[in-house]
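Data deposition worksheet. Section B asks for the primary sequence of the deposited chain exactly as it was used as input, without tags or linkers unless they were present during the calculation. Section C holds the resulting structure in token form. Section D is free text for depositor observations; keep each observation to a single sentence. Incomplete worksheets are returned to the depositor.
Section A, Depositor: J.P.
Section B:
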Amino acid sequence: MLSSLPDAFAILMTLEGLLVLVLGTALGIVLGAMPGIGSTVAVAMVLPFTLSMGQAPAIMLLLAVYAGSVYGGSIAAILINTPGTPQSAATCLDGYPMAQRGEAGLALGWATVASVIGGLVSAVVLIFAAPQLAAFALQFGPIETFTLILLGMTCIVSVSTGSLVKGLLAGMIGIFLSTVGGDPIVGEMRFTFNNWQLFAGFNLLAVVIGVFALSEVLMRASAQLSTASELVDFKGVTLPRLAMWKGRRRTLGKSVLIGNMIGVLPGTGAATAAFISYAEGRRSSPNGDKFGTGEPDGIIASEAANNAVTGGALVPTMALGIPGDAITAVMLATLTLHGITPGPKLVEDNPTLIAAIFAGFFVINLLLLPLGLVLSRVAAPILRVKEAFMMTAIVLLCAVGVYFVRGNPFDLAVMGAAGVAGFILRRQGFPMAPLVIGMVLGPTLEITLRQGLILTDGSFWAFFYGHPIALALGLISVFALIFPLLRQFMSMQRRSL
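Section C:
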């Protein structure tokens, strides 16, 4: 494939190639920053326009929108505490508190740099290590995937600021919501009360937008905030100085690694990577006790991981024909529509095309920096509008975005109910992040557990016999649960001395 790079750059350097890279990335950032749109919807919106394009420009356009939207979600998450995409939900936890302190520009600076580095590393990994990563992903059966998701569930402990019990309850609510609809194994309907609208379960985007965006609108309305001066001050992105990265490079490196590893596993996705990375950052960062209060390491952990997923998710899509997440599932359809057959022989049969796609993906992540600096300023005029108008616009935008996904009015009802429920829970001190974690990880946790039990004849303990990866992940999960208790116990012992 490396020998095809000159021909690949010849494709990229055409007028069409450059326009696709620049305009696609810019469009992705804008769509990602709009609450309710999300990466999947953004890619799906662009898909029809690719049918009249050549193979390479079509795939690069979707990749540009994909990568741009993942970064763009951080803009809304930081400025208005509304994740533009579900994978930016973890960014709200520290990005918005920084913005409230008057450091919105710096918060976006941390997010921008972390996103660019995460995306660039994932592009390099995609180019040079795709075959090896694809082979490693094949080792993850249902049992290994279950223990990975179990590790992800320990994020609930880490993000449950205030009351651990309330955080666990919120997580249980999220897991319960994920079980509504058809049984993944036998297909029977659960908790639908014979309402056919619930047969497919609750729309994740509708719930996420409801508990974050609408509940935030209701919280502000209940506080009777009505003037623009009470909104966060944002005058443009402020890139962090090199000296400010001291002590944070380790968090950045770990987050990029987590994003790449989770991205290459089929069916996991950027939201899972962001929360797992955030939990690991909180555990290992020297500033872990400040997570949730506006700590830059929290932004770095979330944004570096979810952007690193973009390249990793392309590995199973290209090498195995298995979509790494929902967005690459749309891309898989695009490859087929353009006469490209994903699989082990993809690189061998289409060396120039694949080289162009990989090189274009690297350029796209480079473009995130200048385009992010410019396009993030589009949010500044919005923040100068009276809050009542801005909150109304957010509600309308969320409603349009949620409705656009499936064209189902029931999703609007779900969004409204989630917003009211989120408002009530937040007023009682319940954190919303565990609820989202439960909904994101719940379906995969259930189906892999049940598949694993089928493989082991109903023996849960057999998960760890002859499955070294599962055993290692299980031990890490246990340690992640026990460590906060040990730290609290040791702190109490020191105070008693």
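Section D:
The first strand starts at residue 181 and ends at 182.
Confidence is low (pLDDT under 50) at residues 225-230.
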